[in-house]
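$ fold --in a.seq
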Amino acid sequence: MRELGRVRALFLVVAAAHLVVLAVGAPSWADFVTKASLMPVLAWWVYRRGGARLVIAALLLSAGGDIALEFDGLFIVGMGFFGAAHVCYVTFFGRSFAAAGPRKWVIAGGYAIMWAVLIAVLWPRLGDLRIPVAVYSLLLTSTAVASAGHGLRTGIGGALFLISDALIALGITDRELPMHGVLVMLTYISAQYLLASGSLTRSAARPPVPV
């Protein structure tokens, strides 16, 4: 158990370091190293906790997306990685959503309205990215909906993931907020941690790996 605590502590240290790197404008290599390390460390923690393979796959695919987005010309590739990650999340959390009560349809309807409004606002400015962004954002919204049926922690995680990517979309349309990069990564890191840790409460996919 001590090793599990150390792995989670390592994730939190890397996350804090990455946010500091963004805030102070440190060299690009520091940005890349800390960002690329985030999801693999979190995936390792989930694995050692006996977490579901779908969640681990989602985190590793997200790592691929994080890395791809650091290179010019690989935006669509990065979006593809994250789209695949959302498919994993939706598949995993969808089981809980299917078993949830009638309130789930209120949540789904609310997120559907948010998705439609966001796409309507961004559509004129997206250009050639219209279809990829529409499809990806639908997968993202599906993660938010499905995770809400699993529990409060994962529901908040799904909502934060949506907020993080909405901030990225604002950047695409040249509408960045102050400390934009820090806000994007703070919401993204929080989202992934809440989704990952929240999935452990019910996953019981396999016994924890001995430490």
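$ fold --in b.seq
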Amino acid sequence: MNPAFVETVIKTETGSYDIEAGVRRIGDDLLVAIWGGEKPHIGAVAVAQPRPSLKTPETTSATASVICFPGHKEDELVKGVSEVLAAVVSTKVVVTAGIHWDNLSEKGIRKVIKNSEVLVDLILKAVSSP
């Protein structure tokens, strides 16, 4: 992680189903809040830490634990984002997410998933860039 990185807000700008993230360095660790849609909220939380991969121990992977509020569907999002960030940045990560659009179609869901992948790339660039 870039030692100069402290905090930023990042947004996808694809034109539809865009999402945002607030990213804050806390010591050597990362705190990430992801939100978007008509009713942003906190739906799920994940904590992840890096560890040697079980398949190839010379590669860094991550393990995450998730808490999801009943009726919310952000559990897969926070788990995936926290594991990627923890493994790549090699630090402990906490991710919260709450994204909601009324009557979201299958196509809309796929777009949100794609935007979450874009958001992770933007976060990695922000925390790694000098």
